[in-house]
Amino acid sequence: MATLEQELEHLADADRDIAKAELHIAELELTARRLAETGGDTTLTHQLLATMRESVTTFREQRRLIAETIDDMRSGRRLEIEDAVALAPPGGNEPIPPATR
Q: pLDDT tens across 40-68, in order?
């Protein structure tokens, strides 16, 4: 579990990753158009575009989850790691004894 500050950094990273990927997609679309106009083979270019679009979808889902975590932390529905550790019972990391019969 991370702190709110860490999650905000993750959100900024996700936004940067999405922006970079979208820029690469736009550049690749331009390359595909130029190849098509000159009679070049665009098969691999279109395959790469499909992969990159799938990646952006994954990046957006990850961003949504990060934003949801931030909302939960701000509303108190999810604790930051320091709070969770403070609330943990003493000896919380000890192994659970086997059940008795």
A: 999 999 999 999 999 999 999 999 999 99
Q: How far apart are CA 87 and CA 1, in angstroms?
A: 14
The structure tokens listed for 65 are 């989850």
pTM of the model: 0.73
Q: Transcribe 13-59 into DSSP letters.
A: HHHHHHHHHHHHHHHHHHHHHHHHHTT---HHHHHHHHHHHHHHHHH
* Distance in angstroms (rounded) separating the CA atoms of residues 62 and 16: 13
Q: What is the DSSP letter of 94?
A: S
For the chain, counts of helices (H) and of strands (E): 3, 0
Residue labelled with tokens 């992969």: 51
